[in-house]
Design goal:
Blueprint (H helix, E strand, L loop, with lengths): L1 H22 L1 H21 L27 H11 L5 E6 L15 E8 L2 H14 L4 E6 L7 H9 L6 E4 L5 H7 L6 E5 L10 E2 L19 H10 L2 E6 L5 E6 L23 H12 L4 E2 L2
Parallel strand pairs: 1-2, 1-4, 2-3, 4-5
Antiparallel strand pairs: 5-8, 6-9, 7-8
Helix pairs in contact: 1-2, 2-4
Length: 295
């Protein structure tokens, strides 16, 4: 009953906002800011959740919690920051939701930040929230589709040789190729992988500058093994996989002694919410799609 009611309320709200948007874009923007601000504040002030979503956990997973992130990243990020004694953070987050992302939870200690996404709606909402809640923070919110050709130019424009501490990539498609072409060397890299590919194969969907993930489909991103192999060539080491099996965390070589380096095959996880049959069927579907396989 409660779930059905909340869905009805959400559908009515969306219908109401879309109706306003069709009539007047200006009025829509005026109305949407309070809605967005309330959702942001609710997420930011909610209690931490410590639920774990898979087995085969590593030591670092005991620090997991979710507050403003989507997959328990908040606790892992805090633990990493604490270990390297990071007090002020320069960050880049590519691909986000305005009320739920990897950087909201540490905005209070942000020195300089850059949010990038292709959704103009998300950009408008987050930019408005930043102006209201963090008017004196040096945080830019950029509406842009990032590809391997414009990535470094944009980062250099905003940071101009300033060292980046935390770099998050979640574009649901070309993640591998952005990481591959990234010229700067942040201290920490958080990147989304596709667990459906399984632990062993090294692959990604082919590079497509205009790729847009179709919500609900499994065809996206790269395998964990491919990203870990790439990370090693760039001087990065795997230190965490969130228990929801979505993000891999890498630390730069000069900081690796502060962490337990984990083996991506031995530490590979699968979400408990899926049965073995569902996982095998999903994997078979993916492996029969067009893929770029690496050695």
């Amino acid at each position: 009953m409660g779930l059905k009611l909340s869905r009805k309320i959400r559908n009515f709200r969306n219908f109401f906002l879309e109706s306003i948007k069709k009539r007047s874009l200006l009025l829509y923007k005026i109305v949407i800011i309070p809605f967005s601000l309330l959702k942001f504040l609710y997420k930011k002030n909610k209690k931490k959740s410590y639920q774990k979503y898979s087995d085969n956990l590593d030591d670092i997973n005991k620090y997991e919690f979710e507050k403003t992130s989507q997959n328990n990243e908040d606790g892992i990020i805090k633990n990493i920051f604490d270990r390297i004694k990071l007090k002020k953070v320069n960050f880049v987050e590519i691909g986000f939701d305005y009320y739920e992302n990897n950087s909201i939870n540490f905005l209070d200690k942000a020195n300089k930040g850059l949010f990038i996404d292709g959704s103009k709606d998300k950009i408008f909402k987050l930019k408005s929230i930043m102006k209201l809640l963090y008017p004196f923070k040096n945080i830019n919110v950029l509406s842009k589709f990032i590809d391997r050709d414009n990535l470094n130019e944009i980062i250099n424009y905003y940071f101009n040789e300033l060292e980046i501490d935390f770099f998050s990539i979640d574009v649901d498609g070309n993640d591998y190729y952005l990481f591959e072409n990234l010229e700067i060397r942040p201290k920490i890299i958080c990147i989304e992988y596709n667990f459906w590919f399984g632990p062993n194969i090294k692959c990604s969907i082919p590079y497509d500058k205009y790729f847009i993930w179709e919500e609900g489909t499994l065809y996206s991103g790269a395998s964990l093994n491919a990203l870990c192999s790439l990370a090693k060539t760039k001087g990065y080491h795997l230190i965490a996989l969130d228990s929801n099996c979505v993000n891999a965390f890498f630390i730069r070589s000069d900081l690796k002694n502060q962490f337990e380096i984990i083996d991506n095959i031995k530490s590979f996880k699968t979400p408990k919410k899926y049965s073995n049959n569902e996982i095998m069927e999903g994997r078979e579907y993916l492996l029969n799609r067009k893929l770029h396989k690496f050695k």
